[in-house]
Specification:
Number of helices: 7
Mean pLDDT: 88
Number of domains: 2
Helix content: over 70%
Distance between the termini: 84 Å
Low-confidence stretches: none
Length: about 160
């Protein structure tokens, strides 16, 4: 009986130990290994570029006065600064800490950190973005013919449904 109770207590303590939330230090190490700050910087650059492109499209074909051009430039600068300020790593670090703390156990974070500290993990971080870009390029090449097939299907459907009646 004592052995059974001891085994149950030991099992419960092992399960509880495995479910320990990760420390902020270990999460910060994981975020560093995953190059989360670089990813965030890339997101900021994409948002900034998209915002500038949107402003250019909005003003395209419009005759702007020098004052309007200057005001748009000021707006662009303010919007860009806001994006960079609001999404700065220092400002959103706590969001990532909380979400990762609530999503992973200490054991999982330790394993992730061990992997990304290994040569294979470092290669993954370095090469995965390149491989992803290559895959996107290859998929994009397939998209053209697929879009043409879909357009043909739509046109055929419209002809069948609306022109033959």
């Amino acid at each position: 009986m004592k052995n059974t109770a001891f085994a149950v207590i030991l099992l419960c303590s092992v399960i509880a130990a495995r479910a320990v939330p990760p420390s902020d230090e270990s999460i910060l190490k994981m975020m560093s290994a995953l190059q989360l700050q670089n990813t965030l910087d890339q997101l900021i650059a994409q948002l900034d570029s998209g915002m500038k492109s949107g402003l250019q499209q909005w003003t395209q074909g419009k005759e702007l006065t020098p004052l309007q051009t200057a005001q748009i430039g000021q707006l662009e600068a303010k919007m860009s600064a806001t994006i960079k300020e609001e999404l700065a790593f220092a400002k959103v670090k706590d969001v990532y800490l909380q979400s990762l703390r609530e999503s992973f156990t200490q054991d999982e974070v330790n394993s992730i950190n061990a992997f990304y500290s290994s040569p294979a993990g470092k290669a993954m971080i370095e090469k995965l973005p390149v491989a992803t870009r290559k895959a996107q390029d290859l998929l994009q090449a397939r998209m053209g013919p697929m879009i043409m097939k879909i357009k043909t299907m739509q046109q055929d459907f419209i002809k069948e449904q609306f022109q033959e009646k």
